[in-house]
């Protein structure tokens, strides 16, 4: 059995065939999916979706760093909280668009939004699904400034060995996606990721693995990602599946 720890099944790409997508996931052995929100509206949507697919789709409430420029209100996120919510996220830092730019004010807004959601997670004793792109230095600085470290995962991990060690030192998990089937960098990093900190995710509808690149991604492709990671690590797919499922259940304690 597999768990897709990060997919966006509430997105409009699935409006015409969502039930089939969930069914296909089940058939492929992907029994549970974690669906993070990316803003206030989508966080509301994932709560509704989780009600439609109880025990299959689990909601996380979060505001993506791309939203930081609109000054979203994290208090409103807090007001959506209920017993179904499995995590806070996705939240984090994304400096990809700020390359070669100082962009100090914009980065500060992202850092503040990230910090507020980390504190929300601590207050509710929930794990955090974190997004980090081209921002690892500030990312760990924000985390380390907290009164205590929340449990969490860096989803769609794109760092190198140094960032991996920094995550490991803080007992943070890392999620690997379908780009492991074509990314040179990931094929070099993944063998060094300890099995005990590894999670599987699709980030569907994005990052579709080979041989389906260019098509819409779905949770049913998790086994393709697992196969590639197992190969890179020189272990069986069964061991990889079992360990990553246990890891997901360890981090997201309300999965059952
Ligand atoms: Zn993300
Ligand atoms: Zn995402």
> Could you please say which CATH topology applies here?
TIM Barrel
- What is the name of the CATH architecture? Alpha-Beta Barrel
Oligomer: single chain
Order of helices and strands: EHEHEHEHEHEHEHEHH
CATH superfamily: Metal-dependent hydrolases
Helix content: 25-40%
- Detail the poorly predicted runs: none
Bound ligands, each once: zinc ion
* Outline type: globular
How many structural domains are formed by the residues? 1
Given the structure, what is the number of helices? 9
**The biggest beta sheet, please?**
8 strands, parallel
Question: Distance between termini?
Answer: 13 Å
Q: By helix and strand content, what is the structural category? A: alpha/beta
Total strand segments: 8
Secondary-structure topology with pairs:
Layout: E1 2-4, H1 18-27, E2 30-36, H2 40-52, E3 57-61, H3 74-80, E4 87-94, H4 104-124, E5 128-133, H5 136-144, E6 152-155, H6 161-169, E7 173-176, H7 184-189, E8 198-200, H8 222-233, H9 237-251
Parallel strand pairs: 1-2, 2-3, 3-4, 4-5, 5-6, 6-7, 7-8
Helix pairs in contact: 4-5, 8-9
Bound molecules: zinc ion (ZN) (2 copies).
One zinc ion is lined by residues 6, 8, 36, 90, 203.
Describe what this molecule looks like in 3D.
The chain contains nine helices and eight strands. The chain has 256 residues and is α/β, with parallel strands linked by helices. InterPro entries: DNase_TatD-rel_CS (IPR018228), Metal_Hydrolase (IPR032466), TatD-like (IPR001130), TatD/YcfH-like (IPR015991).
